[in-house]
Amino acid sequence: MGDRRPLATCFGISLALSALLPATALGQTDTPDFMPGLLALEGEQSEIPEVLTTTRLRQSKLRVPGTTTIITGDMIRDLGIMNLVEAFRLVPGMVVGHWGSTNPVATYRGTSQYEQRRLQVQIDGRTAYRISLADVDWLGMPVALENIERIEVSRGPNSAAYGINAFLGSINIITRSPQDTAGVEAYTSVGSRGHLRTFTSVGDTDADKSWRLSYEKRKSNGFDSQIDGGQEIPFHDGHDINNFNFDSVFRIDRQHSVDVRAGVLDGVNEEDLEKSGKLGATTNPDIIMDDYYLHVRFDGATSPDHFYHIQASYQNQRQRQRWTVSAPAAEINALLPTGFPPFPEDQGPFIADLNEDLEETRQEIEFQDTIIFSDQFKLVSGVGYRKDSFNSETFFNGKGDNYQSRVFANAEYSPFRWLTFNAGGNWERTTTTDEDYFSPRAAANFILNNNHALRFVFSRAVRTPDAFEQNPDWSYTPTNVQPPFEALDGQRIKVEDILDPTTSTYGQELEEEWITSREISYFGQFHLESALLSVEVRYFNDDFHDMISGVINEEEWYIANNVDLEQEGVELETSLEFSGTKLRATYAYLEQEGRYTGDPAALPVDKQERAVDLMGRLSARDSGSFAWIQDLPMGFMTSAAMYWTNEVRNTRFERADFRLARRVDRTNYSYMLALTIQHYLNPKPWISPDNRIEDQNQFFVEAGIRF
Amino acid sequence: MERSTGKADQKRSICGIRSLFPKTLCILLLTVFSVFSGAQESQGQESQGRVVYFAGSGNAPLDQHLIQLLRGELAPATSLIEITDDQLATLDSGPIISVGPAAFSRVRQANRSAPILAMLVDKSFISGFAERSPGQITGVLYNVPLIRQALTGKAILPQANKIALLATADSVELYEPLIDELPAYGMSARIFLVESNDNLISTLVRALGYGDFLLAAPDSAIYNPRTIKHILLTAYRRNQIVIGPTQAYVKAGSLASSYAPFPEMVEMAGSFLSTFFETGAYPEPSYPEEFRVEVNAQVARSLNIPLPSREDIATRVDRQLAINGEASDE
Predict the structure, then answer these.
(1) Both ends of chain B: CA-CA distance in Å?
(2) Which residue in chain B is spatially nearest to A180 when comparing CA positions?
(3) CA pseudo-torsion sign B65, B67, B68, B72
(4) Which of A207, A282, A558, B7 has the most beta carbons within 10 angstroms of its beta carbon?
(5) Sign of the torsion formed by the C-alpha atoms of A101, A104, A110 and A116
(6) Domain-located, residue A541
(7) Least confident piece of the model among A532-541, A622-631, A695-704, B251-260
(8) How far is the CA of A609 from the CAs of A111, A158, B278, in angstroms?
(9) Given this model, what pLDDT does residue A52 score?
(10) Is the bond leading into B245 cis (omega within 30 degrees of zero)?
């Protein structure tokens, strides 16, 4: 019997082919599609993508060298998550908040001041991280929630695969293939605090080409109010953004295809003059966004076991931020250089316009090659080159460029079914520091019963200072200057001149930051009689060296490689699925200890302590989430989610979301209606006292239709 | 096969080393043996009427494999004779085994009175003929009852209870018995109607939004070599598995499918023939008693789906069916 089975299988295939093909009147040319190699299962994104991008090899969770959280687009939508950044509350160890005039920030294991400096963010493999100012603009992220297929968050240093900025982890937002979105879709949600989101998409697919054009509008009034001098005052902190995306895939032949993606985003990010106004602002310094990108990728294969891609992208992000300032003439006179005649102080204040306009351009090209030598040995390698350009009169006194070149590789070797080794690294050279760096990673995964893996991972990663930290030339140039101060029109007022000279490190050269990370993690799946249980537990121990900490503003500039940190913690992610029910829970515990390692004479003790504290500013000791999605009869679905973070800057985040949705499938279309309630269990503002929400219950109504 | 080839070689070598006399003797002996055996066969036919004709599919390896299995299954006194299309019209009696729908149609057209046992045919194909000519036409059904496929999906994804089905207006009735049966197993299904090839993927996207997995029936208007890759990849990108429709599709990338093993089908064919020889009529077309499960472990790994063993899946399916009574869509 044992000998006959493969033969029978083989004949079964032959029969299926002979029976199927005449019936469908298809030519013989189609028969190769039925060969076992139809799907390049280890292939890159064009094939089965439900595996992980951690090493750039397509790997299952059992073999991947690290812990990865996958948030599916369906989960985001089923839980009633209303904007992208909030989805990261589902990731163990991530803290999501808002700074300034409601600018979202998402960090993994803290170490962030405000800007998100140490996480690489990609959309379909294209860098979305803003290099020159080391930040991620979540409001201006050119991706609609409806287009998200899934988000992969590699928790732990991932510089070995994605380079310098993947210092604490990497986020890869993977959008739906236009091959899967043929048809028309429309969606809208409206809700509390002026929330409005609309999405429309149209697309088509056939054997040779697929395309999708989508438009999304995101609008919000931001928080309800802010506190100023103990008084509640209005908060001008909303946003109104329009996002167009075009995605297409052209199939050249069975082994070659081209993806073309393009997008345009414009809008306004409101900034409140009380909160974000600088230098005596009298108008709101709103940020006008005007971004676009073009992304082309060529996928090819020489065989099912050897495939490659070349991708090139061009992105331009332009922000225009202008406001009017008013300052007493005496203050202006105090800033004047010696010999400059003072202005009269009895003819009114100095009034002029200032700006923080900035244009960032990124050109990136990458070649990646994957060879599957056997099921035991797989190798991915590649090279990349990136040019980051910036243009800002205010921050850089003009234009500048940085260049990065890199070579990366990862090998997966499984000498036995129960053991997989991964070894990889990324060599990179950057003109930011004019040095080169190597970020390695090595891991051993012990696999039991094909369903359980115990991983041991060691990695090192590097982050280089951004262009502004390293080479600032910061000044403000007044325009539209009112009399009698016309002489200052077009004159550069250098920030360097007004900084506290006792602590200033302005213009001093910075070195790279290093992290050495050790991880022991377990991933297991339990196939129960009527349920599927997944458990992933991660213990980590990280050493950070030469972390760049300190303060940058118009009065103080003391950043330096002056903090070392040690942190360890445990993270848990588990899910249980049984008939009609999905349960998911996450928990993260973090202990962090930092010490000042800079020159003791450079800063007073309080500022040394502040530099250390800033590293833990968004580090939460405990955080977690719980989600429950329940199918009900007649197309109804309910979900409940609880998120908590304890605590950041003496505040705690505790919110419970409830959603009731009904989906109706008709012959030619399906539609959905939903009501979501977000209940803030803790009425105290989160992270900043200005992040005030007056009603603890926030309501959102959604409607969507798909043809 | 290897052993019999070896004997033939040995026989040739023995003949080859002798002189003319032994060669002549060899030929003579062989001639006598063949005449004798032919006569014996003829006598057997006349005395017991145990001849079964075999109309193959035209796929030589498949036909030979089936012939070999059938010869092992049939009583020693029963002869299995392969026939060509030309010989079909001249046959006046004896059951004919046809392989595949095309062979069945050829036999049926050539000889409408012949008792045919159709192998490797779907229920939808043969049931009409069998109803019109009860006892004369039967079949060992090759397709798998859809409830069994549905339970195969549930054995792999125990949490699944909603099944998405794609159908055309012509194939929608394929799924109706399944939809009636599923509630007994705590499951439900919804059919998404594909009106034309142009809206296959948009309908699939809606279907994937409904179901825990996609169940594919042998419906060639939807699942065919031209469409299957797109369907599979779309489903997998949505983290949804596809079950069925046949073993071949599992090789192509579908996660799993139950299938009727050849020895089981042959055993059932033998049983049908015995009934025919005893009563002069075939039983109704029927599914084999035992099914096996084909899985694509690599797809499961890629999707992070823990896969029970094939035997375990088959046992779970059998247990479910036994608990609820074998209420298949027969």
Answers:
(1) 38
(2) B234
(3) positive
(4) A558
(5) negative
(6) yes
(7) B251-260
(8) 14, 29, 98
(9) 57
(10) yes
Domain B146-255+296-324: assigned CATH number: 3.40.50.2300
In this structure, is residue A630 part of a structural domain?
yes
* Exposure string for A253-289, b = 16+ CB within 10 A, e = fewer: eeeebbbbbbbebbbbbbbbbbbbbbbbbeebbbbeb
CATH of the domain at A651: 2.40.170.20
Mutate to test the interface with B, among A1, A34, A211 (most CBs of B within 10 A): A34
Domains of chain B by residue range: 49-142+261-288, 146-255+296-324
Mean pLDDT of A11-38: 30
Question: Domain containing A278: what range?
Answer: 4-25+52-706
Strands A398-416 and A377-392, sheet pairing: antiparallel
Instruction: Write down the mean pLDDT value for chain B.
Output: 81
Rounded to a whole number, what is the distance in Å from the CA of B236 to chain A's nearest CA? Answer: 6
Bond prior to A50 in cis (omega within 30° of 0): no
Mutation site, A14, A15, A30, A577, interface B, largest B CB count within 10 A: A15
What are the tens digits of pLDDT across the range A205-237?
A: 888 899 999 999 999 999 999 998 888 999 999
Q: Strand, helix or coil at B300?
A: helix
Q: What percent of chain A has pLDDT over 90?
A: 68
What is the count of structural domains for chain A?
1
Q: Give the tens place of pLDDT for each residue, A576-598.
A: 998 889 999 999 999 999 999 99
Characterize A412-449 residue by residue with b for buried, 16 or more Cβ atoms within 10 angstroms of its Cβ, and e for exposed: bebeeeeebbbbbbbbbebbbbeeebebbbbbebebee
CATH superfamily label, B49-142+261-288: NAD(P)-binding Rossmann-like Domain (3.40.50.720)
Note whether A667 contacts B303, CB cutoff 8 Å: no
Min Cα distance B234 → chain A (Å) is: 6
Query: Could you tell me if residue A45 is inside a domain?
Result: no
**B interface mutation test: which of A35, A50, A70, A581 has the most B CBs within 10 A?**
A50
From A314-318, A334-338, A467-471, the region with the lowest mean pLDDT: A334-338
Residue with tokens 């599914």: B287
List CB contacts (< 8 A) between B299 and chain A: 39, 41, 48
A668 and B159 in contact by Cβ < 8 A? no
Q: Which residues of B touch A670 (CB under 8 A)?
A: 206, 209-210
> How far apart are the C-alpha atoms of B55 and B49, rounded to whole Å?
18
Confidence of residue B48 (pLDDT cuts 50, 70, 90): low
- Quickly state the pLDDT bin for B28 (edges 50, 70, 90): very low
Distance from CA of A436 to the nearest CA of B (A): 35
CA-closest candidate to residue A449, choices B309, B316, B239: B309
pLDDT number for residue A685: 92
pLDDT above 90 (res B57) = no
Cα–Cα distance measured from residue A127 to residue A493, given in angstroms and rounded to the nearest whole number: 34
Asked if the Cβ–Cβ distance from B238 to A149 is below 8 Å, we say yes
- Beta-strand ranges (E) seen in A221-286 are 225-228, 231-234, 239-253, 256-269
Selecting from B65, B220, B298 the residue whose C-beta is nearest the C-beta of A7 gives B65
In this prediction, residue A117 carries a pLDDT of 76
Answer whether B100 sits within 8 Å of A15, measured CB to CB: yes
Query: Taking 70 as the threshold, does the pLDDT of residue B328 lie above it?
Result: no
Task: Please give the Cα distance from A182 to B201 (Å, whole number).
Answer: 6
Contacts of A577 in chain B (CB under 8 A): 159
pLDDT tens column, A661-689: 999 988 889 999 999 999 999 989 998 99
Identical fold between B49-142+261-288 and B146-255+296-324: yes
The pLDDT value recorded for residue B49 is 60
B64 in reach of chain A (CB within 8 A): no
Contact between A129 and A638 under an 8 Å Cβ cutoff? The reply is no
